[in-house]
Amino acid sequence: MKAGPSYNAVSSLKALQCKVLGTTYNPTHARTGAKVLRQRLQGPSMLAYYPPTVNFRSIEKLAPGLGRLQDVRETQRLKDVERKKMLGKGPPKKEQHRHILQTAFSSFYLRPDSAA
Q1: What separation, in Å, do the N-terminal and C-terminal C-alpha atoms of the chain show?
Q2: Residues 65-93: pLDDT tens digits?
Q3: What are the tens digits of pLDDT across the range 39-68?
Q4: Which of 28, 51, 79, 103 is 20 to 30 A away from residue 2, measured at CA?
């Protein structure tokens, strides 16, 4: 009875085959996820399935001259922001915030040789 080719010969032949055909050589048969990565992406087709959402801002961009449209949620949000500002709960003004940071951390940024 004739013996088959050795394991090393088959292994090197498989490696050469993968190199020629441009596939990945995986002698241990480890899971690489190549099958999943070869598939088409599902995101664009899912986005095309649902129609675009229509809101007041998009309508205003399409037809800016329509003054009668009023977004109830946006007006309520603006009222809430104004109320929080009156209570002192809003974000600090940019100039004020920058000034506070400069005075609080000025000693960290000054070098001893640059102090006059």
Answers
A1: 97
A2: 776 777 888 899 999 999 999 998 887 77
A3: 999 998 888 898 888 887 788 788 777 767
A4: 28
3-state helix, strand, coil in the chain (%, to 5): 55, 0, 45
How far is the C-alpha of 39 from the C-alpha of 41, rounded, in Å?
A: 6
| C-alpha span between 102 and 107 (Å, rounded) | 9
Q: Which residues contact residue 26 at a Cβ distance below 8 angstroms, ignoring those fewer than 6 apart?
A: 32
Angle of CA points 37, 40, 44, to nearest 5°: 125
Side chain identity at residue 46, one-letter code: M
- Pair of tokens at residue 71: 């977004």
Q: What is the CA radius of gyration of the chain?
A: 33
Residue 11 has pLDDT above 90, yes or no: yes
DSSP 46-93: HHHHSPPP--HHHHHHH-TT--S---HHHHHHHHHHHHHHHHT-SPPP
